[in-house]
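Dear H.,

Thanks for agreeing to be a second pair of eyes. The structure we're designing against is below in token form, covering all 163 positions.
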């Protein structure tokens, strides 16, 4: 699933931090881990699952937090991430507003949010408008993952809440 085109969305710099919010680690996790390691960056995972599976053996270098249900938020420090990737969580979560607010606050200026859902689950145009409403800019639907819709937007310095 993780294509070369997907990895081209990222231009990791030394010390970059990425947060993947997902239901389980996958090829995207592995790919992000590799590209961040190459620049002494870090990836963190927020895993929404009913049971806490211990991934520490498979992913020893990744900070992993487990969230038990789709009512709870994930946690992230303000301005601590250069990208937040939300995969297979947004449509299921009961408080989408909270997910966007936390993502926005956790992103550094000019950082990216990427929302990935299986094709047909989210209304792409409504999602782009929702991102605009939460002060994300340049929301685009990018068709690079087979079977998935991917929407990417940017938190911009000096725009809306980006101060």
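And this is the sequence the design step returned. I haven't edited it by hand at all.
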């Amino acid at each position: 699933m993780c294509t070369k085109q997907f990895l081209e969305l990222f231009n990791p710099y030394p010390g970059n931090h990425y947060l993947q919010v997902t239901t389980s680690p996958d090829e995207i996790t592995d790919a992000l881990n590799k590209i961040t390691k190459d620049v002494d960056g870090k990836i963190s995972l927020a895993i929404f699952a009913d049971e806490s599976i211990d991934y520490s053996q498979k992913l020893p270098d990744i900070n992993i937090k487990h969230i038990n249900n789709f009512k709870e938020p994930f946690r992230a420090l303000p301005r601590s991430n250069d990208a937040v990737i939300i995969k297979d969580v947004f449509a299921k979560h009961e408080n989408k507003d909270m997910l966007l607010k936390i993502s926005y606050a956790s992103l550094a200026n000019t950082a990216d949010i990427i929302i990935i859902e299986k094709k047909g689950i989210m209304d792409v145009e409504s999602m782009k408008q929702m991102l605009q409403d939460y002060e994300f800019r340049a929301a685009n639907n990018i068709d690079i993952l087979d079977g998935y819709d991917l929407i990417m937007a940017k938190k911009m310095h000096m725009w809306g809440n980006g101060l």
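Two observations from my side: The chain has a mean pLDDT of 92. The chain has four helices and seven strands.

Warmly,
E.
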